[in-house]
Structure formats: structure tokens, C-alpha cells
Fold each of these.
Amino acid sequence: MLVGVVVVVGLLVTRLSNKGPRLPEIVTLPDGKTATAFTQGDGWFAIVTTDNEILIYNRIDGQLRQTVQISDSTLSN
């Protein structure tokens, strides 16, 4: 029982200390950008940043394809 408690506490510490989503190694975020979410599709993946941007990358070579700015008016609905 003691070992079980230690394992649970260890998992909680490692999970809660995570600072954002795990990103593919091929991605380099622009300076000053911090990821808050990550999703992927066929041939692309997208990273949502803390400053309300969606960065869409090519899945094969990791090149930034498109940047989408999320406006405040869309957030209030």
C-alpha cells in the first residue's frame, strides 16, 4: 500500500509540473511564443499559443505554413 501511495504521488508531481503540451522535436516555436495546446491532422499539426495565435506547421518538414490570429470578438461568443 505504501508503494502504491508513493507511485501515485510521483505521477501527480510529474504530470502537474508539465509546462504545456509535448511538441514534436521537429518544431521550433518563434521567439517569445509559448504553446498551450497541440493538435494534428493528415500532413499538418497546429499549436495554439498563449497570445491567441494558431501556428500551423507542415508535418513532414516542420515548416510554418500559416499563422491564424484569434480575435477577441470570436472569444466572447
Amino acid sequence: MSKVLEQFFEITKIPRQSYNEEKIRDYIYEFGKKHNLETYKDNYKNVLIRKKASKGYESYAPIALQAHIDMVCEKALGVDINFKEDGIKYFVDGDIVSTHGRTSLGADDGLGVSTILTILEDHSLKHPEIEAIFTSCEEEDFSGAKNFNQDLLKARHLINLDHCIEDEILLSSAGGITITSTKKLNRIESNELKGFEITISGLIGGHSGEDINKGRGNSNIILFRFLKYLNIPFYINNIIGGSFRLSIPRESSIVIGVKNEDSLLEKKDEFLRLVKREFPSLKNLNINIERKSVDYYYDNEFNQEILDFILLLPADAVILSNSFQSMVDASNNVGEIYIDGDTLFVICDIRANYDSQRSFLRDKIIRLSEICEFDYKVWGSYYSWPYKSESMIRELTLDIYKENYDNPKVKPIHAGLECGYFAAKIKDLDIISIGPNSWDFHSPDEAFSIKSLNKFYKILLEVLEKCKFKK
């Protein structure tokens, strides 16, 4: 077993949900101290570890390696886990490491963290001085990278280890912003209605940036399309759609009351056939309807406004790239819809490669909120990482990749990376992002390839060995 894999398995034991990174922060901090490395931590749960240059590399410019310590915590229905206290149960099936569909795995970005820790403890390697940056809360609000003290860094070349395709080198990433729209609801009682719970399930889900153009569907949108398709009066009791704004929703359910269930049951199979034609690869897509005992509903006057709002939202891939074929420039993930305390919440996460596109989608959703009489809050803004035409670290890495892959790709990514914050803080910073093959981030199907991890690690070591840049 490789040292990187051993290190990854070690950190799977440590809870590291966003905003709950104290234990993994302390583990990394003590790791640095244990190996007699210059180690710092701050009030934002970031850690910086500095490793001296190996013999003969003292005169070369330092290199920064960066990864985030938190993970998205998603679980399948029926799985009992407390992400604040429990580690992740993993399985090794030949080349593949996964959770067998139980929970997210934490390869994002546990593989990056494990790779850096393995490099830090191996004193046989050849490399310039290394500044290892471990940041917190990347999956929520980027507050770790946002508050990291850039004055601590000497490096002007940074390798981010948060990518998931081994033969790709990333050269830029999207920025983003979140909008929470809310509407206060009024309760009513009705003995004339029959309660039913409608559940959309069987979707694949995935990362709301990297997977948004893969035609996986959104259970929230499908659910409200079904309500529109019914074309009958109904009253809402409760909604639970999606579980995390940065994950494409896999499951959504709503409890409604109707006077006549005949149309409800008749149209279920009709609508399911329609949607399965649209998403032929989603073999497990299903609509389930069950009787439900309900004590109250919300006033029917809100239903049309809610339906209009959800179905008029820009959703999934919205603007395609004019520069990179099949790439998304701007998207909106309708990630969460739920009722809490008699208030309906709709959370949308926008990603865009250009600030102007991000503003365009933001203003659309704000205006739609106003028209449908929703209150709204705009939050969670983060920087894009802009493309630079010249990059010494990119050219060196590409040369090495060409020796190892038939057709390595240099491309942007439609996802947010902390590179945006480091690029904004240090104007002359030279950045790339790379990583081994892993997939289905932000979902219980998350997994990675051991062979790819081992190959990637060897290539990264070669990059470090050849990083002989002038100070």
C-alpha cells in the first residue's frame, strides 16, 4: 500500500465537515510539529507547514502546495452517521476506493491533503522549499482561503491539489454566489383534503459545478414540474428537496393535500414515462406517492407564486463557453428547497467564469424573487481564478504530463477553487490545479482510483524535482 493511500485512510477516521474542522486541523498541526517542520495555525483553522529545500535546491524559488481540509457530508437514505463525530467507512474493491454508496468519501479534498502530508514526511525527495497550505471551509464559504495571511508566503508558484482528472491541468476556475429566497407561509386547517407524500428519487446527483452539464437532472425541478403537470388544486404541508446547495439534488419530497386523488395517481405513470424519455440513463428514476396523515396545510394562495418561482428559475447549465467546447460558462443549481418555521426556503448556487455573468444570473433571480414576492439574501460570494497567458509552473507541468499521457489537456473548470482567493491576494502568483482520477464528488457515489493516485503522486514528485525556478 502506498504512503499516500495509508495517509488518506488515516484521515478518514477524523470528522471534517465544513465548520467542524478542529480535529483535522489539530491532526495536521501536530503532524508538522512531530516531523520538526516549521508549523503555524491561525484563528480560521488554517495550517501552514514549511519544509526546507532538499540538498542542492536551496537557491531555487519555493513552491506552495495547497489543499482544503473540509469535506461535503452527504449520505444515502437510511444511513445512520453523525458527521460531526464519526469517521468515514470506506471499502477497497480492487483499484477503487468508495463507501459503497453510503456516504460521501472525502476524496475531495482528502486526496490533496494526504498527498501533501506524504511529501512533507519524506526526506528522501528532491525539491525546493515547500510551503504547504491547508485551508478550512472551502466547501461552504471559502473563509479559510479568504482569511489566510498571504504575508506568510514566500512562494510565487502554487500547485492546488483539488482537481479530479489525472491527465488535466487546470488554468482557471469559476467564481460564485449564493441566493437564499424565502416566503412566509400561513397555516390553515382542512378536513376535506387527503394527504399524500410525493417523492422523486433515483437520480445520480453530483458536484453542482463539475457535473452540472452531464444531464443528471435535478430532483427539485422534476418535483415541481410534476406538480405543474397535475394541473389540479393542491395545498402544501411540507417540502424537503436536496440537502446541500453545492450538490445536484438526488431526492425531493413534498406533502400535499388534494380533494380528489384520482388525477394524482393517474398522471404519475404518465409523467414518469415522459421524464424517463428525457433522461434515459437514469434507470432508477422513480416517483413514489403514499397516503399521509396531515394536521394542517398552507394557504393555497401561495401555490401559484411558489410554482412560478421554482419553474422560472434559471437552472442547470445556463451559458455555454464560447472558447472551450462543451464547457459551461455560467450555471445555477437549485440546490435546496425546504420549509422551516412556516417559511419556505429556496437556495440557489450560481457559478460563472466571468463576474459579469455571475451578476447577470444574480440579478435575474433577485428580480424573480421580487416579482413572486419572496424575500432574498445574497451571500457566499467568491472569486474566480482568471486565466493567465504565461505560466512557468503550467508549462513545466505540461511538459511532464506529455511524457506520461497521450493527450494531456489544459483547461478551465466550472467549479470554484481557492485559487481565486490566492490569485486575488498575490497578483503575480503563478497557479495550476491538478489531481488524480476521482468522481461523483458531493454524493454517496464518490470514489477514486488507487492506480491513478499512485501515478499522479509520482508525476507530482517529478514536477517538484524539476521546479528549478529562480528566486
Amino acid sequence: MNITFLGGTETVTGSKFLVESGQTRVLVDCGLFQGYKWLRKRNRQPLPMDIDSLDAVLLTHAHLDHSGYIPVLYKKGFRGTVYTHHATRELCEILLADSGHLQEEEARYLARHKLSRHEVPEPLYDQADAQACMELFHPVDFGEKIQIGDVGFQLQSAGHILGAASIIIEAEGKRIGFSGDVGRLNDIFMKPPEPLPALDLLMLESTYGNRRHGTEDPFSKLADIVNATVDRGGNVLIPSFAVGRAQVLQHMLTTLIQEGRIPKLPIYLDSPMAIDVSEIYCRYADQHRLNIRQCRDMCRSVRYSRSVGDSKAIADQRYPHIIIAGSGMATGGRILHHFKRLLGQHLTTVIFAGYQAGGTRGAKMVGGAETIKIHGEWIPVKARIEMLHGLSGHGDFQEIEQWLGQSNLAPGTPIRLVHGDPEALEAMRDHLHQDTRYVVDVASYESILRL
């Protein structure tokens, strides 16, 4: 059996692992490279594998760094099966179409402003490609055993987001685990990841290999920020990712209102994609910590703004209110329109509830920028800027070690670290070397592991 590392190595994006056994070839994850330009260039380079001989894609979860390259495979002629959990399929139907739409818009913008070296800039794929590739998806249950030629596999819950899975592959008498993105043991929203079975090799994510989550109670922090803003007569703006983060924030705000810890304020979810995702979360209540009543309360307590007209109407609200809108790093989306209206007011508070990548508007605002450019206009930042920590869907290095300790991994089990930046990978390797008896190494791009 051979495993070729085609992405998700020495970076947190582009996850792709080619597994070959006998006459069978499957790709575990099929993600987009994101972030730095030198990484994004890989998305347009020929994939160093024969797509025509690929039998299937096994998908851990819906985030684009794991799923976003599937429409490209489809464009290149792949017509095999994409196996994943039912919830992941539903999320991919939303996320991939949105990704294609955004790429179309970017290509049109580059063409209009002549910013591309190509006379007619082309998106990597468009919305039609993303919608067409969904015909390849075949949903499976956690624990369901599937055989593809010489390779057998099953999914087990990994926490993180709805439908997220670790993938356990069996071939040639060996059992190989791919962790996918591993959730937290005491997440606010998601259930903890299931312990792993005995393995001959584990590919382990290392996103938080050099970081610990704080101990501050995010409910109390959020309540303090909201109450202070309401006392001033101001509004709260929360840029949010559509999958996972928006749902956690809805639940937290609903809970705080029910417990009397914040006033009963109007809460607007101004993101059609996040609204659709929230409804999917409510359909899969068995996967997260909320019961049916809590799911219904979360959806009923929040006012959904689907249309552009609904979004514009929020401006007529004269009393303190809360707006949750995409995007999470303020790189686009409806939050920008609310920023243009409210950032220049001292009474406003902006809460960032997730990691802000360098160069984004979110990072600049957290860093103290006094003005932000939105739609060609410089907007003064007079609002209070707050960070709400503790909502990450990734386990940190100590939580990952604890999860491994709960698993049935024997001392000496080989581990290859993937899906982490170089500093995180090195710190994770050092930590596991010192505190465990696993044999740990870091996977490198386009390397081949022969078992």
C-alpha cells in the first residue's frame, strides 16, 4: 500500500492523500489550497496523479480546505463516487456552490478592472460545476463499512463541525487512520470526537500544535460585551463564518437571553448561507449537544434576513440590536454594509469570534487600524473592537493528546503529522515525542509512504 501526500502538508489547506492498494486508488479529502499566493497557485497546476484511474474520494468534512477541489476533479472528467457523511453532503451542496459563485465574481472583477495577465480570466470552477459535481456524492452513516475494490473503510465522528469524520481504511491486512479535523473534548456545541481503534498508522491534524485554548468563559465574556454596549445605547456587529461559528453564536445569545444575563434584544442572522446551514444543524440534532427544544429556540429567537431587502431593513432598527453576518474575517459579505453604516459610531461594538488571517480587514481592525477600506471608500473605525476566544472547532495540542490517550493506539504506533503550519507541526512533534510513546514524524508535500 502506498500513500502519497498531495496537500495538507506543512500547511493547513489543500488536504489530499492518495491511497493505492492493489488495483484500487482512493483520494482521502480533496481540498483547495488557500491563503498565500504561492499555495493558491497549486490549485491550477496539474494534479500529480492519473485522475482517470481514481476510483473514489473519501471526504472527512465540508470545509473547503478539505472539499473545495472536488468540482475541479469533476471538470477534469472524474466520475467516481465521493463518499462522505449525510450532513457533510448537505453542507457541501451549499459551500461548493457558494465557492463557485465567488470565483465567478472574482473573475468578472479582474476582467472589468484589467487586473489579470489573462485577457479573459477564468474561475477555477463556477457555480454550475459545483452543482454538477454533487451527483457524485454518496452519503454513508458513521460506522457503516464500505468496500471499494481492495480498500475497505468506515467513518467515525470527529466532532469539529456537523458531519465531520475520521476515516479508518483497511487494506492489505493493515488499518490506517486519517484524523480529519478533530474537535474539542468539551465543545460548546459539538459532541467530542470518538476514540480511535488500534491502527498501524495515523495521519494526525496539527492545526493547534503550538497553541492552547484559553480558560476564559466565552458565555460570560459575550454577556459582558453585549451588556456594556446596550448600556451605551449601541449595537453589536459580529462577523461570522457560516458553518459552525454562526450556529454557536445563535445558541450562546439565545441561552444568555433565556437565563436573563443579557436583555431580550433583536438578533439578526444576515447571511442566507448561514441560515441554510443552521437549518441543517437542526436536522442532525443527534450529532451535537443541543436537544430539539434548544435547536428550535435558537432558530425562533433569531430573525433571519434572507433577501437583500431584509438586510437593508435592519438599518431602520432604532433600538440596540445584534447582527451576525458573513464573512468571519470581514473579507466580504453583508457585514461590510453594516460596517459602512455603524463602524464610525463610538457606541458600536464589533466582536470577532474567530482567527483573523494576516492582511484581512478583521486582522487590521483587531490590530488597531483607524480606517478600513470598504468598496473603495475609507471608513473610520470608531467602534469598540473585541475578540471572543474559546469558540474554535479544533482541539489544541493537549486536547489532541488526551484524545489519543482515550484511543486504542498501542505504544510505538507511527504518526505522521499533517494539516498544520510549520511552527505548529514542529511544536506538535516535540510535544508528542516528550509526552507519549508514539513514533512521530512530519509528512512532506508529494512524498510517498510505502507500507
Amino acid sequence: MKRLLMLAAAVAAFTVQAQSFPGSKPITIVVPFSAGGPTDRVARDLAEALRKPLGGATVVVDNAAGAGGSIGANKVAKASPDGHTLLLHHIGMATMPTLVRNLPFKVETDFEYLGMVNDVPMTLIGKPGLPANNYKELAAWINENKNKVNLGNAGIGAASHLCGLMFQNALKIDMTTVPYKGTGPAMTDLLGGQIDLLCDQTTNTSGQIEAKKVKAYAVTTAKRLSTPALKDLPTLQESGLKGFEVTIWHGLYAPKGTPADVVAKLNTALKAALKDADFVKKQEGLGAVVVTDKRMESAEHKKFVADEIAKWSPVLKAAGVYAD
């Protein structure tokens, strides 16, 4: 009888918590990368858009970088499952199971999937003094120089690293890859001419392309983009790399065991945030596309990530790279 009473009390407590969520306690969105990067920018815009549908709750961003994004993800996986600690992660959720050895959590079972946020195209850009002025000339230049070409990235497991791997695989050419600790240092060295190429998210490259500080060659989407700064760029597919498509996406997660009612409230709030005019405008300005399809639903979000794990695992295993 005593155990039954304790169980009933616990259930009642969870019910009250769900009904009053989020209450006066702040909600923290953990970003598993450094401040100022593309994912951080998305998180801060999303935090602002979530406040109203969450009843004016305080929503803050906490940067916990390292180990291919697994440190921040683990922080959320181990957090109290009360809905007040969330994770905003990108395609790294699909690559960590292969990239990070001895991963301290399971991507597919240790989180509640709250819904997708956006899709972010990638752009292939070059240093200001690169002799190639279009993709055809770039391809010829790469073929002539091959492993002398320096291809930068923001670190193993970063979006720019994944895009670089796909690009080298498509060309069947090994370049000299130069990993950095974040997109900021990589872009700085590209602008300074220390590296030749970078394939990175439009959230990080659009401004530099628009200001004509870098040479822009192509986008990684199946179709051309409509963003003013990028609309004249061809796709890598139409440039000759058939089937080449890399889009970086972001999703929102809570620790496994978060009450179903709280998960439902967070999902409803996320859907409202994705329709927020200011949020959509900010994302469009960065070249990102806010999700409006069925991936906003928890189950579809989870299925999508599982499919992405299956897609990237063989690519990463073939490359033989690890984030730890």
C-alpha cells in the first residue's frame, strides 16, 4: 500500500508539473558549439521566438562545445527530464554515432524528439585571390593542383567537414584538409588567403559572399536558392557533380523521460515559433529555410534522423575520421 501511495504521489507530481510547465523556471537551450557560430545564431533566434508561445518564459542559450558536439548533447541527455533543459543540434546528431567513439549516450533512445527547425544550404567558396572565377575553372584548377589544394573546415564532425568529405569523394581527389576550432577561425584564414577553399553553411557565408570578400562557386542544394546574395550561384549538381546534395539541418531535443504533456507543449511552442514572422525573416536572411513539413512532428523528426544516420555512417567509416 505504501508503495502504491508513493507511486500515486509521483504521478500526481508529474501531472502538476506538466500542467504548470514552464512555470517560473528558465528554459535553457544548450548549443554544443561555440558562441557566434551558425548553430548558435539559430539557437538565439529560436530562443526569442519561443518566449511568447511559452507564456513569456525566460529562454536562454548555453554554449557547451567540444568533441564533435557530443559534450553539449551529453549534458542534455543527463539533465533532469523536466523540459527546462533542451538541445539544439544540427546534422551532428546523425554523425556522432559514427564519429565519436565511446559515445556516452544513444542518439536514438536517450532523447525526446521535439521537431525539426530549419534546413541550411551549404556554399562552396574560395579565397579572394583564387584564379578560378567560376566552378568550371575551379574544377580545372583543383585537378591541376590536387593535394596541394587546402580545404578548410570548422573541425571534425562540423558541417564544413562533412561537406568537404562529400566534395572530395565526388571529385575522387584527396585535398589537404585543414581543421579549425570553429567556423570563425576558418573564415578568417580563408579571407587571409591561408587556405584555398571552404564549404560552409549559408548562415556563415552569405554576408561574405554579398560583400564580395570571397569567391563563391556553387550551392549544395538540389535547386538554386532564391536568396538575393545567392540566387546566381549554380548548384554542384548542375555543375556536373550528379547527386551531390548536402543540407545541414537543426532539430530540438529534450532528455528522455520528459513527461508526454511537457513534450507536447514544447512541440506546440516550437511550431508556433517556426511561424513567427521575425524568426522566419531572420532565417531567410541567412539563407536558411524554416521547416514547414511533417518533420515538425516528433515521430517524423526521429525517423528523419535515423535515415540521416544510415546515410552518413558509410561515408564517415570510409573516411576513417573520428572526433575524439
